[in-house]
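User: Can you predict the 3D structure for this chain?
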Amino acid sequence: MMCIYKIYFKSNLFDFYIGSTIDYKKRISRHKYQLNTNKHNNTYLQNLYNKRGKSEFISEIIEEVKTSTMLIEREQYYIDELKPTINILKKAYSTLNYRHTNDAKEKIKKANKGRKMTEEQIRKGVLARVGQKTCKGCKRTDAQKQHLSKIKKKKVLYMNKVYESLEDLSIDTNIKYQTLYAMITNRNTNKLNIIFYGA
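Assistant: Here is the predicted structure, written as structure tokens:
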């Protein structure tokens, strides 16, 4: 759904953010993920989220827009009229179809090198992904299949609790099995400090 939206916090109606998007559900999900992992590029919004907490976060649609060409125009209208306090930029703009140059990608890579999140930030990030779609239809390599087969036979230690399998951990934490598997098999292996042992 293309729309103009507003973000604010229950106990602080004065401070709010105005944004536009071609996919409301996906955009808000992205905001939440970045805020939960303490990586949002809007530091004022991030600070408010850290102070107020997840339970006070509210997002709502102000206006549905029929065409993408109208998004920026309508976003600018609401920025001018409502004067949001959290928007860093007072001029609406779009990154639709924008792609970083190779130089820009290299600079971003260098800036993020060595940056580490706390275990709590990682956990919040994983929980923010609960219910999101996984890569259906993606083919695993033979090595991945073999690794997955071994993991299924092992017991799991997580947060000082022993689980008979990764599947049991998935059920107990309400985190999708595929999400857990992806988190422990990426190149930053086992960010959640999940320990496998046994057969």
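Residues 137-197 form one domain. The two ends are 49 Å apart (CA to CA).
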